[in-house]
């Protein structure tokens, strides 16, 4: 009964497995199990590669195609425009990408020049019909949800002749889904074109660049001054932040608590750090208690408009704060800060944990609130991390929004570093009163004055605020008015006249302000430049009764309210002119600007920028346009002016760069810098061609355009297309040798600079034609200063690269002919992955490869024929597989014994040079974990590498090359451990030496088989194939030899057989393009009838060592085209295929599947044949790899190179042997139930065995010892108990896995002659080892009683040895047999490691 249940158990398992698991999901791609083969690489001649099921998108280079580019660089096409359309610019807002240019449709949707794409839905939308002309610039305003557009257009197409739109600029409001005119109407003059829209560094205004003219009122002036010299400089601050006046934090109006404090004298008073009187030390520094998180609470009990905090670290006793967090009071809102890293000078953001620098040369760092200023009553600072014994601070300040002054004199406390306090002057009678605030139980002191109705402005009370202003700049000035409801005086309120005197040489501005507001109000009274007087650094603001006051008063009286004035700093950048005033401030004389315009986003006024612009909207940065107008000699009457500003960029200090197509009489060409209020050329007068794109990153300006050098040719040709500029050192820096064409767009993402344009090559040296192939899109790694392969591949002229809708991804666009998801020069690493449609995970080669220019000129095979054969054997020319360098033709893996790291070794026809690394060619070692590539020490391979083989620490290299110093030709040996070439062997000889195959049989590690085209090895005649003894470093001929050329060599499970393929004749003249060599009798023979193979074989594969399952492919000798044939053990038969002329086969290999295909007589259901090369099929078109399941051919890989279609030369993997058997995993619950059932069955089986054992013992007179005396039996049924448990274990595994239900040798055991297991059988043996007892295993040949004798043996098959007491060993290794008394399992020692354990006897010989 138990036996019957055990027989049926696998069927029950199969039923439950099919029922509970989903096997019905069909994948578009065959599910190749790459992981079972170890680490897998795909090599060939390609720059881009894709899976065949992704190639459905149709590209038309006459259109513009939008593509998404993921963080790993892979490219996915999205949609194309109409014929002749161009996508030029783009930006992202709330998960939607907005694109614009010159097109009338995209993805079949009609639109005019602008559209949106939603990646979550995959759909495009029309933005209100679009615009009536080309759009060159987009800016997505994240705060307002609006899209600013710039270009050469007039109106939205849905609003024709709407005179509110003045041209060149328009706004699309996403929420309202409508077009709006900009507040300034538009821009005209010049070419009436806007090319660029970017925000200033703080995001408070927009810079517009292009070809247009701005006219300012003739009395408009812009001034410059210097900062308060009393404010100490710190690299941790910017010109903007150091101009913000600190808010006084003095008691009793402010309460500050810090705990826990140190007990050290001179360091426990937190007030000492608010404005320290001296250097870091006692009395000027506060220290927290040792090893304690510290909390500092600052409460002002009144609302203050603040922009950030200033922190200076302490370095007393090597202590200091390294990280902190902060929240606002009273709402405990966590603060996010923007700050400048004092080391890298990068602009960074922090919130959860903000770093505080530990460089003692940095006096303080300014941390500004993210976005805008905010009204707070205080803040809490938590010092969370420290160095040394504990945390501490030397400076703590709260930064205002700019400057301020109160009407109540006692409130105007001294600000740190200020030469004077903010002050107030009163005229008339003013009374102090308190007004309630929103803070519980808190009030705000103000002044009120009563004036009789009818009093003139000149005779009314007045107040003059004189705020301390740390630095000149562009400011908004506001008057704060308490609401009348809190004071109960609404009926007495009226209007006042406020006059702002902004500073030296600037006209006063008067505004009438109504004070009859019910709630607290901030009234704008001035916008523009402010120049504080010297030496007090003050301006004045006067308030008095309005000339025509509103209201009727209360009891015949008006009540005037005086609270505070507030200055909000907008910009610190000012312009300069030829003249200079006595106060050190400069005055501009121009009243027109060209090509550059700034608009402050908070400005709510409505003007017409195509007319005369009022003073109130002019900003200091507008002086840039004024100076351009002057130095370029712009004539406003010429509307089509040639000069144009194509791009602008700004850094954290307010410096502005502009680039375009312009030149001045002084030599300034195409790019300029606006710094310290002066427009100047960059070093070497700029560049010798137009600039199209600018971007600032890490204090470096990156410039793209159509230039080749500086204006004075100082770059030696290395500045072509793209170059960088070191802002701090005013120095041009090349990006190696640039690129060989024009650049249209730049973008920085994930630490790399992406370059789009019209180019095909990244030269290795200036003006060189050798370099990295890249067609329209290239990537520069900013950290390593190298060109890198960042992922996808395309061939086109690109016009756009822009940040995408998710972090790290991008959108690119342009005229595209080919796109491949993965960009990689000749190599990818591939694993199973978990992607949809069965797509594996692909890891491209991270380093670009270049063409190799030192290939021997006398070698016709180096560039043209990868698999060419001797033409004398064919009646017509054989199509060759053309190689257009760079190409990787061979790969291997080396497990470094020293570092335990796996290195990928690649060979082919390529070159590369990275940074300080020496140039290498044709053979390289690639560290995939570090993305580092290096070459061999000493000589570089001069020619093409076609075959690689690693044995232990030795690399065998084959191909068509020379090594000058080693005098090697076509075959070389490299010691990987010693990093040197081996020279102590004879070189191959012949008119043409071309080694295409280097292999080793699994049973003999001291033997290397070399195949190809050659005539001898040294003086030994050895044509086409030769055996190399790795120990003796000697060549040996295989039998009587062969003639012709060998393209590839393989092996069967019979260790005595070797299979060679190519264009071969045996020594007796028999043509045999697939031949076998028998090591046992040292003879060659034809595999089947050679006439059944139509022509020379360029690729073949033995199915898992099965001599009765061989595939071969090549080109027919009669010119009828490519063929694929199959050997079934009796005859060759041609397999139906659709391969057409132009096909070249480079490799056939049998690969395992994750699933199965329908059974057939050609190939087993758990595997497929992978066919690689350059394939052309009448059914599926072009491909680089296809799979064959015995019935159908399915394209798998397609590839492209810079020269057109690519090809795959080979798949190579790290495991020399692997199992095709599939392991299926059942649901956990089912596994538990099956386990319980099996356990119960085992218990019953043990009980039954025990009962039978007892019964047999009673009837047998033999003793226990005599029953197991060695040599007394020849039957596997009487094993000792350990073997019995092994039988049970094997049976259990067989029941669960479904493998090994019958011994693979059981059928053979019935015959007269025993045989060794085939490779297909031996892979099942780990699951059936306890029940497999080969009849040819010797019994008791090693030990008898009292003997301790050992003998050597070799390992026929690799054994995993994962069971208890088992010995893991590799095929070909030598072991020492210690005990062979058990027929099935022998006890052995591995002399290489000293480990001991049992091994299946059938695995040894």
UniProtKB/TrEMBL annotation:
What parts of the sequence cross the membrane? 1225-1256
InterPro entries reported for this sequence? Gal_Oxase/kelch_b-propeller, Kelch-typ_b-propeller, Rax2-like_C, Rax2-like_second, Rax2-like_third, SH3-like_dom_sf, SH3_domain
Which residues lie within the region annotated Disordered? 1303-1327
Output the Gene Ontology cellular-component terms: plasma membrane of growing cell tip
UniProt feature, compositional bias: Basic and acidic residues: 1309-1324
**Record's Pfam families?**
Rax2, Rax2_2, Rax2_3, SH3_1
Q: What is the lineage of its organism?
A: Eukaryota, Fungi, Dikarya, Basidiomycota, Agaricomycotina
- For this entry, the protein name equals SH3 domain-containing protein
Give residue ranges for domain SH3. 1348-1405
Tell me the first and last residues of the signal peptide: none
Q: Which PROSITE patterns match?
A: SH3 (PS50002)
Q: Which UniProt keywords apply?
A: Membrane, SH3 domain, Transmembrane, Transmembrane helix
